[in-house]
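INFO  loader      accepted 1 record
INFO  loader      residues=414
INFO  predictor   begin
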Amino acid sequence: MKVLLSAFSCQPNKGSELAIGWNWAIEIAHRGHDVYVLTEINNQDAIEQELQSNMGKEAYQKLHFYYYKLPLLITIFRNFFITQYVYFFLWQLGAYLFAKKLHETIQFDLAHHITFGNFRMPSLMGNLGIPFIWGPVGGGESASLRLRKSYSTKGKVVDFIRDVANLSTRLDPLFWNTCAKATQIYTTTEQTKSFIPKRYHNKVEVLLAIGQAVIIHQNIEKKSANNSLKLLFAGRILHWKGLHLALLAIKKLVGKGIEVKLFIAGNGPEKSKLQQIATNLGIQNNINWIGWVTSKQKMQKLYQESDIFLFPSLHDSGGMVVLEAMSHGLPVVCLDLGGPAISVNDNCGRIIKTYEKTEQEVAQLLANSLEELHENFLLLNQLSKKSIERSKNFSWANMIEPVYNKVENQFNHD
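INFO  predictor   done
INFO  writer      dumping tokens
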């Protein structure tokens, strides 16, 4: 089968959207299909280097990359948050026209839009007149206003604009066209699914876009019976990552005499504000601001030395770092919002319910779960082993399988 994969973001050995584009491409090729990837010119050097290094592998021989470049003048839109949407639309328009010419020669059997994986950014590939898959796309996840109370002013404005943008999709003819043209739509969460018009729900399924390489870690003893609790957070320090809730939870644990340390591996614009919050709460000595960790060995050491991965993100569509933490045997404590709530269950962590809860109430529930696991090291070690087991379910091959099983069955039937 000849698959046209629209992957604006696509690079090997990266994270987030770049990883999604690349890994979906390589896994579709592993299934024996010829994959024609249409991606942005900025990805060319990394992709060509990877192809050159693996040119003897069968799956790589089935990958064909086309790099679409917009005129130089238009690229200025790429550098600003609001105008990025304009840039992506113009890229989509140009890429569609490019794909249309390619289709005349190659005759694709299927078009699939994978990145950007955001439902607010519709695709034009459905207009090629062949079966079309859209997704998995996310972006519909949102935190209640009660949980935004401690946001910075900028954070409140950004999330308000995001809420308006989500609602405005109902007025976007390109969004409606994408939904109508799609043979199948995949959303990363039920929250994003709710933004797809109900008339199209018969072709919508919920599926995470993220996966991970299969890494086997043997039984890891995460904790022994002692009085110290080591927590780890990894990611960008943004207003919606929920670290303000984590700090409130730490304050509650310290108030109960629990010796706790939160290691924060990452950086971002909210760091100074959160550091001030930690100081105001009197827990500055309980927080270790590590910064970005670029060494895999150092990151693995952090996983090994920590007891629990604390990830109170308010609207992550996926949360790739959660899967990575689980694969290292770290139980995860997260909120019932976004992708992490799909990756985690009660056998490998704790999911905090947020419906109609205030920041203080959610922080208390976080603290309760952390205290529960701290006091029961046998339970914590059991969750650790189950985390490793569950993480294996989220290999890239497993995530892509249900999508292409359905496609292949239909293709063979026709």
